[in-house]
Write a structure and sequence with these properties.
The protein is an alpha/beta fold and 286 residues long. The chain contains nine helices and eleven strands.
Length: 286
């Protein structure tokens, strides 16, 4: 379960411009490169230059798991130091909670609603949540992760005007839950139906509400979570998880005023990539 005492939501200042980054999963080299090619400077100590008062960073969740121990450690250290460095005077670095942050937190805090001692849960920990194993060995890094977890937002919203807005969550979810409070709504915004448990269904069959509720307007819902070969865009629904840890790309949305642009960086090969069989979102003529 999520600790809803920690769950947060916020409206973003419209005078800022934002780089919104999809699922990092320990791809620290790609994250650094994506920031560099979009105007951020990073010094030799790994600190991002604070001299851009109106440029902000948003990570869309799932910055942990799947990467190597070395790269996951580097990712957490980079996020931790820059989160508190950039946010000294006003918030310029935002974290959205993904299902992987939530599950790692539950493992390392021995959530009583999660039977962490069962064989099944131990197997899942090894297969899906390797950050929890890493943090069990590194207590100082574990404390940093717990602090970052407490800073994560469930959703963020950018309301530019009556005709243009952007809602950010980690996972796609039915609109009746979007930006709502309560246990069920929060859970829906961080995780959609399991693809691994429904292997015979296409993604559009498994979560049909995504395309069924899509509208031809500029009130966008941007999410990650679904591990796609490219940015998937249908009407006002946009998925930017482009499978960096599977050897593909790390992608972002660039948000300024009432404009969206997109950018990406190729996997840089600094760690072993995973393998992925894609289940396409919006896999129909449109």
């Amino acid at each position: 379960m999520l600790d809803y005492r920690l769950s947060k939501s916020a409206y973003l200042p419209c005078e800022d411009e934002y780089i919104i980054v999809g699922d990092v999963h320990g791809c620290i080299d790609e994250l650094r490169q994506l920031l560099l090619q979009n105007g951020f400077s990073i010094d030799q100590n790994g600190l991002i230059d604070r001299s851009h008062p109106h440029k902000s960073i948003i990570l869309l969740g799932d910055f942990v798991d799947k990467g190597s121990d070395e790269k996951l450690t580097q990712t957490l250290e980079f996020i931790y130091q820059n989160y508190y460095h950039l946010n000294q005077d006003q918030q310029k670095f935002y974290l959205i909670m993904g299902n992987h942050e939530n599950m790692v937190y539950r493992y390392i805090t021995q959530d009583p609603t999660l039977d962490t001692t069962s064989i099944k849960r131990q197997q899942e920990k090894v297969k899906y949540y390797n950050t929890a194993i890493l943090l069990d060995r590194k207590p100082a890094l574990k404390e940093k992760f717990i602090q970052l977890y407490g800073e994560c937002y469930t959703w963020l919203k950018y309301d530019y005007n009556d005709d243009f807005s952007v809602t950010l969550t980690h996972a796609p979810c039915p609109e009746r839950y979007l930006t709502k409070e309560g246990d069920e709504a929060h859970q829906k915004m961080i995780k959609s139906a399991s693809r691994s448990q429904n292997p015979d269904l296409s993604l559009d069959e498994l979560i049909p509400y995504v395309h069924q509720e899509a509208k031809a307007n500029q009130h966008y819902h941007i999410f990650g979570h679904l591990s796609q070969p490219n940015i998937r865009h249908y009407k006002n629904k946009i998925c930017i998880d482009t499978s960096a840890i599977y050897g593909n790309k790390l992608s972002c949305v660039l948000l300024k005023a009432n404009q969206l642009d997109f950018d990406s960086v190729d996997f840089l090969g600094q760690q072993k990539s995973g393998t992925q069989q894609y289940n396409l979102l919006f896999d129909f003529d449109h």
